[in-house]
Design a protein that fits this description.
72% of the residues lie in helices and 8% in strands. Strands 2-3-1-4 form a four-stranded antiparallel β-sheet.
Length: 294
């Protein structure tokens, strides 16, 4: 493409924005609102998934060793637990430590004397699995191991909890999908109105011999520019809004996990800008097709 053609295209882009300032503002606001809604739904999905993972990470299996096992037998049991398929990590809590923890939780120094200087607590292993969905299967395998007295893992709570975490993820994905579709429709309608208002200009250019590419590029660049401006405004609103909401939740609901990784948030905000530019360009191309058939 010749240099003068490139200059003409960029000049047309800014002349078009200046001539159709209200339509341009409407396009920017449409992109901004759509990207704000989409960005908010993405952060909802991230936090829903993070909350689900946090719940799942709390799933653990408590394995109590038989009282008559000596230190060698207890160590061998730990090795067998480690070798089981699906086991991620194990943590050993000796009976003396268990009694100490119990005494500390009651804030009492006479528990040992009250118990007749005996320790009723068994040695215990806390088992974490690789996949939370496999908790029941791993627990079933553990019960068959030699030296195991009892296995506790919240049998009646595991299935409802996993169903809830799966529902959280699906709900987050559905929200993102619905708002993404709504955003595309809203932006496409706005771009079509913009292109329709300039249909005479397009028809005249076609009649005087301008190529489709020559006509198309000013609209593509204009769509990208308006998408860029709308995207930048959107990330300001989403970024500051999410930062305030995350601080508020962490202050008032300290137990609630919130996604606050700077790199991840930056990637989401950067994607919003790129998506705004992409939708602006794609919407222009799609909307131009019917008017280029003169």
């Amino acid at each position: 493409m010749a240099l003068n053609s490139v200059e003409y295209i960029f000049r047309e882009v800014f002349n078009s924005i200046r001539r159709n300032v209200w339509l341009s503002i409407a396009s920017v606001l449409t992109v901004m609102i759509s990207m704000v809604i989409l960005g908010a739904s993405v952060f909802f999905l991230l936090n829903a998934s993070n909350l689900a993972s946090n719940f799942e990470s709390e799933l653990e299996i408590a394995v109590f060793a038989q009282d008559d096992l000596d230190s060698t037998g207890v160590k061998a049991l730990g090795e067998r637990l480690t070798d089981l398929a699906g086991v991620d990590t194990i943590e050993f809590v000796p009976k003396d430590q268990a009694l100490k923890n119990f005494t500390g939780s009651l804030n009492s120094t006479t528990i040992a004397a009250d118990l007749g200087d005996t320790n009723p607590f068994p040695d215990k292993y806390t088992v974490h699995v690789v996949d939370p969905q496999q908790v029941e299967n791993v627990a079933a395998q553990i019960t068959k191991l030699t030296g195991v007295d009892n296995v506790v893992y919240g049998k009646n709570l595991v299935e409802p909890l996993l169903k809830f975490t799966n529902w959280l993820r699906w709900a987050g994905t559905a929200v993102v999908g619905l708002f993404a579709i709504a955003s595309l429709i809203l932006i496409s309608l706005n771009i079509k109105m913009n292109v329709f208002s300039r249909r005479k200009e397009i028809e005249i250019m076609k009649l005087v011999g301008a190529s489709n590419a020559f006509i198309r590029w000013p609209f593509i660049l204009e769509g990208m520019f308006l998408g860029l401006v709308g995207g930048l405004l959107a990330i300001l609103l989403v970024g500051f809004g999410y930062d305030w909401l995350a601080d508020y939740i962490q202050t008032t609901l300290a137990f609630m996990p919130v996604v606050n990784e700077t790199e991840l948030i930056g990637k989401v905000l950067g994607s919003i800008v790129l998506l705004g530019m992409g939708i602006g360009a794609a919407g222009s191309v799609i909307s131009l097709r019917r008017f280029l058939k003169v």
